[in-house]
Write a structure and sequence with these properties.
The protein is built from 1 helix and 6 strands. With 72 residues, it is of the alpha+beta class. The strands form 2 sheets. Strands 1, 2, 3 and 4 form a 4-stranded antiparallel sheet that branches. It has a two-stranded antiparallel ribbon with strand order 5-6. The radius of gyration is 15 Å and the shape is elongated.
């Protein structure tokens, strides 16, 4: 799952902390959180990029994530 968060510096820093903690959860295989990037043409709006791979997904040979079916 790829997420782009946009907001003020404080909002984006809070989002960074949130997603970093989320990445240490039991249901997450791994996560990455980028640094702050300023939005073009704005002095007070920023963005952060997040990628999360849940344990319910697997990674194929091309690096894409695929859903995992629970076989019963």
């Amino acid at each position: 799952m790829k997420i782009r968060v946009m907001g003020t510096r404080d909002e984006c820093e809070q989002a960074q902390r949130f997603y970093e903690r989320l990445g240490r959860g039991d249901n997450v295989l791994y996560s990455t959180v980028s640094g702050l990037y300023p939005n073009r043409g704005s002095n007070n709006q920023f963005r952060v990029y997040v990628e999360i791979v849940c344990k319910s997904e697997k990674i194929d040979v091309y690096g894409d994530t695929l859903p995992v079916r629970n076989e019963q």
